[in-house]
Amino acid sequence: MTQSPKRYPASNVEHFLSSAFSSLGVPAKDAASVAQLMVQADLMGYDTHGSFRLRQYVNRLRDGGNNPVASVHTAIDSGATAVVDGDNGLGHLAMSYASELAVKKARTHGIGWIGVRNSNHAGPASLYVNKVAEHDMIGLVAAVGSANHVAPFGGLDLMLGTNPLAIAIPAGTSAPFVLDMATTTAAAGKIKVLAQRGEQMPEGWMVDREGNPLTDPTRQDEGLLLPIGGAKGYGLAMAIGLMAGTLNGAAFGSDVVNFSKETTTPTNTGQFVAAISIEAFGDLQTFKNTADQIFTAFQGSTPFPGHSPIRIPGQGRGDEQQDRQDNGIPLHPNLVKTLADIAIELNIPDLSDA
């Protein structure tokens, strides 16, 4: 029988997450910042990248794989570009720093491109492109996945991650265009969530090493995630790996550390954040008004028979966020149990008492 999720106030979840990080030696300001971003992911509906990830973060902080007192800093500054060193801290800290720096540079140079190294898993990429779009700029974010689940096209050796890409483009009265996608047919986090909930995967997400469909998420380690568009997705994932990993002196390919399994080893995760100033190309308001018109035209186009009305990428996130803010974040009972186990382990108040 499918278990129904119970809703918890966002403030309770945020306090619980912050308490967990603080108990592991993360400074209060950093703990609060990461907790806020994780809850933001939950509120936006990214159930695979919010509080669901606490178990993995706790394991790495507890076992020494992550630095709880990281000093994020700019390692290389070259005008419109820079490289940020995350000091092996929680990835949210490095990516927030990089996002702010990208916007600052774009104001001066028209574009800011910030590479990140010595980082870690940082939640959904949309968190950071949204930070850029809030400043009326176009945001791009990409990352080397935190574990290799994908083989080169036609191969069997796992050498690529889900290597996500996100793009946010602001509009006028419309919500921003926000594309946040893995370069695989499904994000690895979705498979982890299905495994926790005892549910099956659809065919087409993974295959076993004989090429047969794999639908049991608990057997993820036995198979390969499939890239979007076959060879095209493979090529895109590799390009992202070279730009977000190799270019920044971060891990890519066989150097990638599985952050879920290797809890004592630094991952040297690579990411990048780019901010593009719309004003560097012309009038900002004209662009935003035109974007509104384009969005309206797309939404008004004729849908395929039986298909729902056309949507713009990112459309509907605001409504979901408001619902979860007003009525609480839905957490599956199995996740709640995991969080309760963490509370006991860390000797902090349970989520219900946060």
UniProtKB/TrEMBL annotation:
GO terms for molecular function: oxidoreductase activity. The keyword Oxidoreductase applies. Residues 317-326 have a biased composition (Basic and acidic residues). Gene3D superfamilies: 1.10.1530.10, Hypothetical oxidoreductase yiak, domain 2. Residues 299-331 are annotated as: Disordered. Coiled coil: none annotated. Keywords: Oxidoreductase. It comes from the Bacteria. InterPro entries: Mal/L-sulf/L-lact_DH-like_ah, Mal/L-sulf/L-lact_DH-like_NADP, Mal/L-sulfo/L-lacto_DH-like_sf, Malate/L-lactate_DH-like. Belongs to the LDH2/MDH2 oxidoreductase family. This is Ldh family oxidoreductase. It comes from Parasedimentitalea marina. The lineage of its organism: Bacteria, Pseudomonadati, Pseudomonadota, Alphaproteobacteria, Rhodobacterales.
